[in-house]
Design a protein that fits this description.
Length: 352
């Protein structure tokens, strides 16, 4: 069952800029390096030279990730900095220390924040000061797409040349081909995109799933293997999450899939860029459908069916959609060329 909602219809004040599909996923190349464990190197503390920029307007830049912290603040990782929204104003938290393009944000279990950037490594923020981590400290690559905290409290980073795990003192780097390439022919067949890690999640059994621009992988603590269904790999997986029931969801070139521990089930073959579970157990996606880019909500009560009830919020205006958040108040936030909020009736564009 498919319902369609167009919140843009009838609203005269629309953003006129369109995103260009071919340049938005990344504006970057694909360097390579060999993963390795690092020594315990000192952290670089970054001192703010200026005050953070505060504005009543939101970022005008590409917004990749949206998260809500335990205090209710909304955090935005954008190509113009990391912003915090307190319900009244936007603060560019990173403006005093970096002009990098930011891709992801994570609040760890201690309430501290991690920001990943495209080209400048990772920034750690405790609310007062920043620490900067780069390849000099053991990070696999300074172009970092994803951040994830595992059940033991380790922080994982998905980079363009593999995954990095930080235990609070040292980095351990993982190349996606390090466990299964045993011959020169296999090494020649290995695509550099296979080592470009978009998403990381630890499942209920302790295995780690890696979505890459090539073939997705799974790591059991000893071996990194290619994930397959009916003998076919999952390619260009943009997002992997574990839901409240322990199911694994994958979104990418092959559409939206769910794995229940024994079986893969496909829900759509449309390209899916982002997958998100809300507090009610509904699954949200940002995807490119035949009707344009859309936010789709798969109703939790119908997910046991192969044809669940799907509600589609379709801007139908060409914008490429990125991160999703269903906030504490029930409003839907999503990233595009800036950040937008939809409350079921009204669409708010926070750009000036």
């Amino acid at each position: 069952m498919l319902n369609s909602i167009n919140p843009w219809k009838g609203q005269p004040k629309l953003v006129k800029h369109r995103l260009v599909f071919s340049i938005l996923w990344l504006f970057i190349g694909y360097p390579s390096c060999k993963g390795q464990a690092s020594t315990n190197l000192p952290k670089d503390t970054v001192k703010a030279q200026t005050k953070a920029v505060v504005s009543s307007y939101g970022p005008p830049n590409i917004t990749r990730t949206i998260k809500q912290d335990r205090k209710g603040n909304i955090w935005l990782a954008t190509f113009g900095g990391v912003f915090r929204y307190d319900g009244k104003s936007f603060t560019n938290v990173t403006s005093p220390v970096s002009s990098a393009r930011f891709f992801s944000v994570l609040e760890d279990r201690k309430g501290n924040f991690w920001f990943s950037s495209v080209g400048s490594g990772v920034y750690y923020f405790d609310g007062n000061s920043f620490q900067h981590f780069t390849t000099e400290h053991g990070l696999a690559n300074n172009q970092v797409i994803a951040i994830y905290e595992d059940k033991a409290g380790n922080i994982w980073f998905g980079t363009l040349t593999g995954a990095s795990r930080y235990d609070g003192a040292t980095f351990r780097n993982y190349e996606m081909n390090e466990s299964f390439l045993n011959s020169s022919s296999e090494k020649e067949a290995f695509d550099k995109d296979d080592n470009d890690v978009n998403s990381i999640v630890e499942d209920k059994t302790g295995k780690f799933w890696f979505g890459t621009r090539g073939m997705a992988r799974i790591y059991d603590g000893k071996t990194i293997s290619i994930i397959t269904h009916a003998g076919r790999p999952f390619r260009n997986v943009r997002t992997i999450i574990e839901d409240k029931k322990g199911n694994i969801w994958l979104g990418g070139d092959d559409g939206l899939w769910r794995y229940d521990g024994s079986t893969f089930i496909n829900f759509t073959q449309d390209f899916v860029g982002y997958v998100y579970e809300d507090k009610q157990g509904n699954i949200w996606t940002s995807s490119q459908t035949p009707r344009g880019w859309a936010l789709s909500r798969y109703e939790a009560k119908t997910l046991s069916s192969r044809k669940p009830t799907v509600t589609e919020i379709n801007p139908n205006n060409g914008r490429m959609l990125f991160g999703i958040l269903v906030a504490n108040d029930g409003s839907i936030w999503f990233g595009a060329d800036g950040v937008y909020r939809y409350n079921g009736n009204t669409l708010t564009d926070f750009k000036q």
